[in-house]
Specification:
3-stranded antiparallel sheet, mainly alpha, single chain
Length: about 180
């Protein structure tokens, strides 16, 4: 019974890091879309922001899970094999179509792959995102104080797809190629 009287140590809980639309636009402007790698990275980051997908959900994405015709959407398989459908912006659909034209994949093969055709890893995406954030921080100083991860690249929780669409115009984000 004496154990119950030991006070529980309280740890401070840090506030989650969310990005402003201008910060998202600055990061999305960093990949060199003239290269296949840059096109892939831009499409992946745009997809993460548009869908709110977890990094592993995005990395497991196959072409058969995407509905390219209107209304465009994607079927994501998340934690615990839970399935959900997310709408896609026309700009994101265009990026994914262009990526598939430049780097064709079978309908059951993963969409986001490295230069050897192997699926990207979550750590590889974290590394690339950190490099893009570092580059974007030169023009967007607010990024210097933020710890940006693939998880924080998702929009804030109260957002809906329509709210995200109105918050980040495609022209400002550089989504259209």
């Amino acid at each position: 019974m004496e154990i119950l009287h030991i006070p529980v140590k309280r740890a401070s809980v840090s506030e989650p890091c969310y990005l402003d639309p201008a910060e998202v636009a600055a990061i999305l402007a960093r990949p060199d879309r003239s290269t296949l790698e840059g096109m892939r990275d831009h499409a992946l980051l745009s997809f993460l922001y548009n869908s709110g997908a977890r990094i592993q959900e995005a990395l497991d994405l196959c072409p058969k899970a995407i509905r390219f015709e209107s209304p465009s959407c994607v079927r994501l398989i998340g934690k615990g094999r839970k399935e959900r459908i997310c709408p896609l912006w026309p700009e994101t659909v265009l990026l994914l179509k262009t990526l598939l034209e430049r780097q064709p994949r079978a309908s059951d093969q993963r969409l986001f792959v490295n230069r050897y055709g192997e699926p990207l890893s979550a750590s590889g995406v974290r590394f690339k995102l950190a490099a893009y954030v570092k580059a974007a921080a030169k023009t967007t100083p607010t990024l210097r104080t933020k710890h940006v991860t693939p998880h924080s690249f998702r929009p804030p929780p109260p957002y809906t797809s329509s709210r995200r669409a109105s918050t980040l115009p495609s022209s400002a984000a550089g989504l259209v190629m």
